[in-house]
Design a protein that fits this description.
The chain is an alpha+beta fold. 21% of the residues lie in helices and 51% in strands.
Length: 131
């Protein structure tokens, strides 16, 4: 009976290792806009526009990273560098310095693709604090 118990414990430990590794690699931050400016498509040209600043949360976890704004989640793929994080998702880019807590989020998709599908482009400078 003791041998079966040891096998069961070993199997459980082996099954839990991936979960423990991924849980340790998560790094969550609360971010707030310092400045948020961009362009808005008026149907024929791009016009400069200032956007309202906002707050959101970002969780770094490699290819399962995510940004959460007002309960809505956007999945990102990020590098695994400990200091300079580089993340992307379909034309949305986030570059972040974990030592200073400063970063920039940019949505440039609409400028390169048909602007009628994405009618704005922006760069948001952020200051973040680790949760």
């Amino acid at each position: 009976m003791g041998e079966n118990l040891m096998r069961t414990i070993c199997v459980l430990i082996i099954l839990m290792i991936p979960t423990l590794i991924s849980a340790q690699s998560r790094d969550s931050w609360n971010c707030a806009s310092i400045d948020l400016n961009g362009y808005n498509w008026n149907g024929s040209t791009w016009e400069r526009q200032a956007f309202a600043t906002r707050s959101w949360r970002f969780t770094f976890a490699g290819n399962t990273s995510r940004q959460t704004i007002n309960g809505q989640r956007v999945d990102f793929n990020c590098n695994t560098d400990e200091i300079i994080k580089q993340c992307s998702y379909h034309g949305l880019y986030f570059i972040f310095n974990t030592e200073t807590g400063q970063g920039a989020l940019a949505d440039l998709f609409g400028v390169a693709i048909n602007p009628d599908e994405n009618q704005q482009a922006f760069v948001e400078l952020v200051q973040c604090t680790r949760i």
